[in-house]
């Protein structure tokens, strides 16, 4: 059986409202296939019954599950606050002590619609130790569409409601019609480039910090291993790697070690491996 | 934990009430700022959270927030504006008057939970 | 979208699309000019906008549509009844959010009134309104300046 038009419309609008991702007509199969496991888990005979129940109850946790099942992109600002807290309180201050040229180079490896790289810049601006520093941020994504959106830096009312503190909104954004645009002073600090993580990286120089969150989960083990190995080659020996909360290097590429950073953790190249990359 | 919803729309109170109820709050409701002040006076202790609309009859949300901030016994209430007023200068005014957060209508349930998380008001919150 | 100094049809339609999508989990589309937009008796919501331009936004729809909008907003099942007062309140709040979005997108300092909802027996003229879809039903939208 296929999903009913009513159920599809509800799911499409829910996903659009929560993630700005548009499920065009023709994606009924995708919706059906991704939601079948959730419908079964909730004890419903099919996806239509599950969606009908969801539209009636509107349980936020269940709505979130549906959105997450249908989107693979980052949509929130400061998504999972902990890594950004770790960045401001641990990683930035530590690096600030060791970089005499007062410059940090950062790579956001799957930047999606731009919330993550812009959140990194906003966090750097809130870090006293980095006052007056030069921050070079290279943000990459496979999708040209996402890169175009990111460069524009324009977000809907719904998007700026997601995880962005009100003080940050009024400080770093301005109205652009119904939307909000991130200030040019932040936009111009990020260089957006197209990049496929599964291919050899283009020349990018060395990075002090790499964000590669919630993207390895979509790769098979050999690809994960290969990506992590190549990330080591573009990292400063004392650099810091951020992965998603559900991702780890253990058993994939053991040249990395997990180091606690506040409530979060970061990955660093093991001391004995650092000579190999220099 | 208890939450007070101050909004002149019954539909909006019901929507916000359901989100907060699911997040574990006991929900109290008032239809304008004056009703909300009267309700607070009668409570044995202040609620942890108040979600406050801006445009309401009798007493608007900005006046309500100012009143709450003037009473030391209500200092512990976390105040979040939940309103369709969406200009930067309005947000700044509300924050200056004592609002801790600001959620613009239209919003989704997920967005409201993320704001509560920023405020450290969810059981799983770690704060920022 | 360009930023304008008075509400126009494109801006109001975009605000409605956003509100339909995020609060009602439905899509709103412009209703073709050549398509009939029949209407029995219904509900009319007004909200005032004051600033460089003074006037009001008006939303008019069939009673059944109003009930469906309220049901979608509150997440009610098809069998759940809602008192008329609550239907009016929900439609008023939908227009309030549309009005706030429109106001926020305009240049300058503006004030929004409180929504006012009443019964109406006739649809507005299509000459001074535009029509958006609620499923297969029409919803009339008017941007009415104060009479000079």
Outline the structure in words:
The complex is a heterotrimer of chains A (278), B (128) and C (148). By secondary structure, chain A is of the alpha/beta class. Helices cover 43% and strands 20% of the residues of chain A. Chain A is built from twelve helices and ten strands. In chain A, strand 1, helix 6 and strand 2 form a beta-alpha-beta unit. The longest helix of chain A has 16 residues. Chain A is globular, with a radius of gyration of 20 Å. In chain B, strand 4, helix 4 and strand 5 form a beta-alpha-beta unit. Chain B is globular and about 30 Å long. Chain C has 148 residues and is α+β, with helices and mostly antiparallel strands. Chain C has a single domain, classed as CheC-like (Chemotaxis protein chec). Chain C is built from three helices and six strands. In chain C, strands 1, 2, 3, 4, 5 and 6 form a six-stranded antiparallel beta sheet that branches. In chain C, helix 1 packs across helix 3 and helix 2 crosses helix 3. Chain C starts with 8 loop residues before the first helix and ends with a strand. Classes of the chains: A alpha/beta (278), B alpha/beta (128), C alpha+beta (148). Chains in contact: A-B, A-C, B-C. Chains A and B meet through helix 4, helix 5, helix 8, helix 9 and strand 4 of A and helix 1, helix 4, strand 5 and helix 5 of B.
Q: Tell me what the CATH architecture of chain C is.
A: 3-Layer(aba) Sandwich
Shape of chain A: globular
**What name goes with the CATH superfamily of chain C?**
CheC-like
Strand content of chain A: 15-25%
Helix and strand run of chain A: HHHHHEHEHEHHEEHEEHEEEH
Strand content of chain C: 25-35%
Q: How many strand units of chain A?
A: 10
Helix content of chain C: 25-40%
- Helix and strand string of chain C, N-terminal first? HEEHHEEEE
CATH fold call of chain C = Chemotaxis protein chec
Gyration radius of chain A, rounded = 20 Å
Query: Roughly how many Å apart are the termini of chain C?
Result: 29 Å
Number of helices of chain A: 12
Given helix and strand content, the structural type of chain A is alpha/beta
Mean pLDDT of chain C: 90
Based on CA atoms alone, the radius of gyration of chain C comes out at 15 Å
Structure summary, number of beta strands of chain C: 6
Q: Per the principal axes of the C-alpha atoms, what is the gross shape of chain C? A: globular
CATH class of chain C: Alpha Beta
Helical residues, percent of chain A: 40-55%
Q: Unreliable segments of chain A (pLDDT under 50, ≥5 consecutive)?
A: none
